[in-house]
């Protein structure tokens, strides 16, 4: 899979006096010529292609939309950024969480830049069964240090790969960071120079960490047990429950936790 | 305020062959002699005292409960750990999120150890208006590195102080870490030796970060605007809305974001 950062094909927008207007003018529907041309590239090279996100026109709305093209050129997924970087970006916020499956690898979730600052985003993708979250970023911000912490945290609390792909200079600060399900940085791209980074993904690592715990200790995916009362979450008008899940392909929160052995734990909680 | 870590007065439990049974045997109701004695200490020294968490008996249930004693000896708050470290700990899970106010300082939220691994915990406390979260910890785990990441992340995404107070050796690994609302570590206690750390809290820092953004950039508390559609969160059967809030003292998610100036942002999102 070849993955590019947020708004990759429009990086120059930042150099325009009115970036929001420039991007709106460049927006197309997803059935327009731009996505068709990208699909041809994916098919010609027989690759999974995530060409960054694109300005998408849908009626009066302009979304910041990540698209995923399969090796046969099909548009298999599109995700509209739920958390635009307000008040600076004028994107219409998206309303849906999006995942897609890649055979032999796993389920991917889509995330764009500022989404990583809202733990709700990665949490929903995890609950939808994501094993790997692609976070497409374009930032030159002084807060990239915070984003690297958040990339690790999103990986840790959801026990998945979290891949934060930032734009190179001059439109981005680089510093892409690729985190495994234990929260360890397994690859990174320091500095803002353009670069290609190869990130190995092992689907068994996700299953292993969820089954045996983060660094072999904490089994977050097995926290709730059948019969537990729902945990009320007033900020959302909702709850965590042992039962709620979306479909058979989702992970299995709610399964009882089974100690790996009779030994005393070596951790703590 | 003097704060001790999780189960501080019962650290030896880990050395017992049956820690859960040992702690259950030691449990008392909160109106029992143990809390009364702690209240006397708080009153005698005229201090806010968080003596770690205590095993609390309530009917057949045994909770891991943080208590807060005011300088006049009143028990002003108690919080039952919502996320016990399963399957190793046999505490009954708590069901309520708890905050308390300290004049001149701000609103504190209570959190115990493994709670920090569930972003829902700190999020609810933030939504209830917490400016400072006390996370009382007792871990010797190999995952303290992950917890330090999570302490920073919980501070960043909620723009509050997150104070992770871990037990010293031999029952804990130490490594307490104190994080400001930008996610910066402002004090820490490396190593497992017993130590007292003074942590300065500036209530204006919370207000400043929420108003002007993390490192002056990202204004998370102002993300949702009146009229925004709710953001559906299927994992919780709930949503983020501009309107939902708990009471007048809560922060003001839902206020429109107002750019600080007409300048182009120096960050990205």
Observed structural traits:
homodimer; 269 residues; alpha/beta; Nitrilase/N-carbamoyl-D-aminoacid amidohydrolase; six-stranded mixed β-sheet; three-stranded antiparallel β-sheet; 5 helices; globular; Aliph_Amidase/BUP (chains A, B); hydrolase activity (chains A, B); hydrolase (chains A, B); C-N_Hydrolase_sf (chains A, B); Carbon-nitrogen hydrolase family protein (chains A, B)
Mean pLDDT of chain A: 90
CATH superfamily of chain A: Carbon-nitrogen hydrolase
Strand order of the largest sheet of chain A: 6-7-8-9-10-11
Number of domains of chain A: 1
Q: Per CATH, which architecture of chain A?
A: 4-Layer Sandwich
Low-confidence stretches of chain A: 246-266
What is the total tally of β strands of chain A? 13
Please tally the helical runs of chain A, counting DSSP H or I stretches of 4 or more residues: 5
GO molecular function, one term (chains A, B): hydrolase activity
InterPro entries (chains A, B): Aliph_Amidase/BUP, C-N_Hydrolase, C-N_Hydrolase_sf
Region (Disordered) (chains A, B): 235-269
Domain CN hydrolase (chains A, B): 1-203
Question: Could you explain how this protein is built, in words?
Answer:
The structure is a homodimer of 269-residue chains. Helix content of chain A is 20%, strand content 23%. The first copy, chain A, is α/β, with parallel strands linked by helices and 269 residues long. Chain A has a single domain (2-240), classed as Carbon-nitrogen hydrolase (Nitrilase/N-carbamoyl-D-aminoacid amidohydrolase, 4-Layer Sandwich), CATH 3.60.110.10. Mean pLDDT of chain A is 90; it is low at 246-266. Chains A and B meet through α3, α4, β12 and β13 of A and α3, α4, β12 and β13 of B.
